[in-house]
TrEMBL record:
GO terms for biological process: intracellular protein transport. It holds the Pfam family UBX. Residues 152-181 are annotated as: Disordered. SUPFAM superfamilies: Ubiquitin-like. InterPro entries: Ubiquitin-like_domsf, UBX_dom. Residues 34-117 form the UBX domain. This is UBX domain-containing protein. It comes from Serendipita vermifera MAFF 305830.
Length: 181
């Protein structure tokens, strides 16, 4: 019921909100954009190797493509590739007019995003093929830190008899609306 009330209240706020001029909307958008001056981009290769770099949020997607291309081996640089987001798959092509003139912030990549990389040459898109990175980039390779290990909570068994009696009484209670007859 509270979900319904919150949706109704949100709709009423939108209906009753004052109209805003384009100048006011642009000023509000600039304020939101100023919250994220930089964007961290991770590019994930098919073998799960990742490249990471921080870009200004005002940069275009072509600067990310240039960074990736400069990180590749010389023999792989001429091979075309595409960067995309998932799910659902949304390709960020430099040739796409709707994408190339937008900033990283306008593309929804700020403050951080993971982009997947797919080569047009299928032989490079297999998990068992190592990422074709240059020797300079491979020399800076670091393993990701291991995920944190959470310890299990051990239940306190010192007061087991009291909890068993309360569990038994909780199982016997049946709500009135569920009783038959």
């Amino acid at each position: 019921m509270s979900l319904h009330h919150s949706r109704v209240a949100a709709r009423e706020r939108l209906v009753d909100a004052p109209l805003r001029t384009s100048a006011i909307r642009e000023r509000e958008e600039k304020k939101r954009e100023a919250r994220y001056p930089t964007t961290t981009i991770r590019v994930k290769f098919p073998d799960q190797t990742q490249l990471e770099r921080v870009f200004p949020s005002s940069d275009k997607i072509r600067s990310v493509y240039a960074f990736v291309r400069n990180s590749l081996r010389e023999d792989v640089k001429p091979i075309k590739f595409v960067l995309y987001l998932t799910p659902p798959r949304r390709e960020l092509k430099v040739s796409d007019l709707a994408v190339r003139d937008l900033s990283l912030y306008q593309l929804g990549l700020a403050p951080s995003s993971v982009l997947m990389l797919s080569f047009f040459e299928e032989s490079l898109n297999h998990r068992d093929v190592p990422a074709p990175l240059s020797e300079e980039v491979l020399s800076q390779l670091q393993d990701l830190p291991p995920p944190p290990v959470f310890q299990e909570v051990v239940p306190d068994t010192s007061n087991a008899t009291a909890s068993k009696s309360s569990d038994a009484s909780a199982q016997k209670k049946v709500p009135k609306w569920l009783k038959v007859g």
